[in-house]
Prior knowledge:
330 residues, alpha/beta, nine-stranded mixed beta sheet, 11 strands, globular
Amino acid sequence: MILAQQTHQNKRLTAIILALLLFFITIGCDKTKGDLQLIPAAPEKGFNFPYYLFLPKEGLQNDRVTFIIEPNNTGTPSDNFDTHIDAAKQQARSSQIGNFLSHKLKYPLLVPVFTRSSEHWKIYTHALDRDALEQKGNDIERLDLQLVAMFEDAKVKLNQMGHTLDDTFIMTGFSACASFTNRFTALHPQRVKASIAGGLNGMLILPTSKVKEQLLPYPIGIQDVQDLVGHSFDTTSFVKTPQFLFMGADDDNDAALYDDAYTDTERDLIYAVLGKTMLPDRWKFCTDKYKKLNVQATMRLYENTGHEITKEIQEDIMSFITKVTTNKVN
């Protein structure tokens, strides 16, 4: 699965040159929304792709600032890097969770520009699937660590502007990037102050190695996390990390049906252990398991709601994150 084709490298080089030309130039500076900057890739700092840094029009709060990070989700594979840049730009400007919270909390927002290749379409980078995590020796190796490196870089930039930053961040996501968020939180719970994810295809990564005598490899469970990322699953930190996880009761977007999201082996395991029906069976199984394992998660199923984020959901997210930021989460 090594992405070494010359044409791909040429496209990446073009994209990096474009990012360098835009370095620290405020783009899309809409006075009614905020300042958006494209920060170029910096392989020497640990990230091979650019990222967007959004600062809300309200300014940043005077107290200690917490970053919001929302993984990008282009919605479709493409080998045109500009497609991913444009989608991430739009997401940073107007996403219904990350951007919404950025304005409400007066926190900065970081959105990476990770690629999702058409040629290698089974590597679902935007969901941080197993294929993505198994990559070695190419630009998309360890996207989870590249995201951490982007955060560290953005922290330095805001520190230089006089802001004091938390060492942990709020992760947000919907649909594919909700899966990225949920999975990243399982891999690096000590990095995450709070995790908000919705439209999760009725499925959460289970913080256990086996269910019903069936081993659960990543991303269904955490049985082989040590082999994939070089460290064991941190049960204590994961259980203590506040999470807000939600689905719409009328959501019919089931990623388990598609080969880019899961292999046949993974799909068979999902159906056998978690359930073939996304709602209500699979969602109930996963949420019941989180409750049984005492994961500090608020889990919601919204009636008369599809694959969407409603005003009611936004209000519940705000209530949740306000409790987190004021240390009132139970």
